[in-house]
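Structure (tokenized):
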């Protein structure tokens, strides 16, 4: 099933960072699309939950050198 994940990501300072995050996520199995916006500090990912998980996506972002900003409880 395709799911959408929106993450707040810290450490992206330019369009190069957006490209880097997009590329790293694009390499993961099950990721359909990944769009990063450094100004908003936001990453949107469409992924197949049978092939990958929010956990794996978060790990890939962290390994690329960026930080996942915890969401405030709503
Ligand atoms: Cu950058």
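Design, position by position:
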């Amino acid at each position: 099933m395709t799911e959408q994940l929106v993450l707040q990501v810290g450490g992206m300072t330019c369009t190069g960072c957006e490209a880097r995050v997009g590329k790293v996520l694009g390499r993961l199995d099950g990721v359909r699309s990944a769009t990063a916006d450094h100004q908003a500090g936001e990453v949107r990912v469409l992924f197949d939950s049978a092939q990958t998980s929010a956990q794996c996506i978060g790990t890939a972002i962290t390994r690329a050198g960026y930080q996942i900003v915890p969401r405030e409880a709503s």
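Reviewer-requested clarification: The two ends are 25 Å apart (CA to CA). DSSP finds two helices and four strands in the chain.
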